Amino acid sequence: QVQVVESGGGLVQPGGSLRLSCAASGFTFSSTAMSWHRQAAGKERELVAIISSAGRIISYGDSVKGRFTISRDNAKNTVYLQMNSLKCEDTAVYYCAAGRLWMKFDYWGQGTQVSVSS
User: Fold this and answer.
1) Are 22 and 79 in contact (CB under 8 A)?
2) How far apart are CA 48 and CA 34, in angstroms?
3) 41 vs 44: CA distance, rounded Å
4) What is the rounded (10 degree) CA torsion for 38, 56, 67, 83?
5) Which one, 21, 75, 81, 102, has the greatest CB density within 10 A?
6) What pLDDT shows up at residue 71?
7) Are 114 and 17 contacting, i.e. CB atoms less than 8 angstroms apart?
8) What distance lies between CA 22 and its chain's CA centroid?
9) Do the Cβ atoms of 6 and 108 come closer than 8 Å?
10) In this structure, what are the phi and psi dihedrals at residue 108, rounded to the nearest 5 degrees?
11) What was the pLDDT predicted at 16?
12) Per-residue exposure over 64-89, b if at least 16 CB sit within 10 Å of its own CB, e if not
């Protein structure tokens, strides 16, 4: 049974930091690209960051480049999203996804809310 579970969301002030985690099971994590997406109220879901199975290839959405860092620990079947210099416009539900092919998203988590507000 595939499980993708995000954690680490919450409320933070502008300029602050949060670290999201995504624990996965039920598939071969070390052979799967992992990604973070977000969806703000009234907007379409957008890709935030994606990392290849071995972590050698990483890509970020333009709006988060230089502020967010995606990483993974294949020994723990976990992918992370370190978010620094958060802005109000980063407020969204953040989703973790797994894909057997690059830029394909086969399995999704339930999402975790990130709110940036003073």
Assistant:
1) yes
2) 11
3) 8
4) 60
5) 81
6) 98
7) no
8) 7
9) no
10) -125, 150
11) 98
12) beeebbbebebeebbbbbebeebeee
Question: Exposure of 35 by Cβ count < 10 A (0-12 exposed, 13-18 middle, 19+ buried)?
Answer: buried
Q: Whole-angstrom Cα distance, residue 47 to residue 118?
A: 25
Continuous segment of H or E residues that includes residue 113: strand 112-116
Residue in 92, 115, 117 with CA at minimum distance from that of residue 36: 92
Torsions phi, psi for 47 (to 5 deg): -75, 130
Burial of 38 (0-12, 13-18, 19+ CB in 10 A): buried
- Is residue 81 within 8 Å of residue 1, measured between CB atoms? no
Strand extents, DSSP E, 8-91: 10-12, 18-25, 33-39, 46-51, 58-60, 68-73, 78-83
* AA identity, residue 31: S
Which of the residues in the chain have pLDDT under 50? none
Residue 107 CA to residue 66 CA, distance in Å, equals 27
Tokens in use for 118?
A: 């003073």
